[in-house]
Specification:
Blueprint (H helix, E strand, L loop, with lengths): L2 H14 L4 H17 L6 H13 L3 E2 L1 E6 L2 E3 L6 E3 L1 E6 L4 E8 L5 E8 L5 E6 L2 E6 L5 E7 L3 E7 L10 E2 L3 E2 L1
Parallel strand pairs: 1-12
Antiparallel strand pairs: 2-5, 3-4, 5-6, 6-7, 7-10, 8-9, 8-11, 11-12, 11-13
Length: about 170
């Protein structure tokens, strides 16, 4: 048997072999190396779910247009609270959301959609889904929201043929 045939025979045996404790330790070490050197982003799973959901829906996806971080003085403390304003645009809708930190560790979301009279606004954050209806000016509020990866889905209150929901990209709040 030549060296090449011997090597191929050994590879064939390894392919058919059972993973033993030595293999398990080697794989665990390799996993730890990747977890430290190139960890999976924490929001990857939510982003993959979002992409799969889009494949199943006819929806218009809004683009993150701009994000600003003005500093606001806290009314009851000397600390500066950082509020963010995020603007999303799509072909049919522009939505601006101000994210204001609350003292009890959550945030308040104040939003305005144009044109947005009486839109159904859905907030998806983690496994939770919350709903509100925008007023006649397109304004909506989510009073207390936990931190996490969040996205909005905006739908016409009285859907007409050709109307599609507008879905924003997920943002960290």
């Amino acid at each position: 048997m030549t060296d090449r045939e011997h090597d191929q025979s050994r590879l064939d045996e390894l392919e058919l072999g059972v993973v033993d404790d030595v293999d398990g330790r080697a794989l665990a070490t390799l996993r730890r190396i990747y977890e430290v050197g190139d960890p999976v982003p924490p929001s990857l799973l939510d982003r993959v779910k979002f992409a799969i959901t889009l494949d199943d829906l006819e929806a218009e996806v809004a683009m993150l247009q701009r994000e600003s971080l003005p500093e606001l003085a806290g009314a009851r403390s000397d600390d500066l609270l950082r509020a963010r304003t995020v603007t999303f645009t799509s072909d049919t809708l522009t939505t601006m959301v101000t994210i204001t930190p609350l003292e009890n560790d959550g945030v308040r979301l104040d939003g305005w959609a144009a044109p947005g009279a009486f839109l159904n606004v859905e907030l998806r954050i983690g496994e939770q889904t919350r709903h509100v209806t925008a007023d006649e000016d397109g304004r909506f509020v989510f009073e207390h929201v936990d931190h996490g990866l969040a996205q909005l889905v905006l739908r016409q209150n009285e859907a007409r043929e050709g109307d599609h929901p507008v879905i924003t990209p997920a943002i960290e709040i």
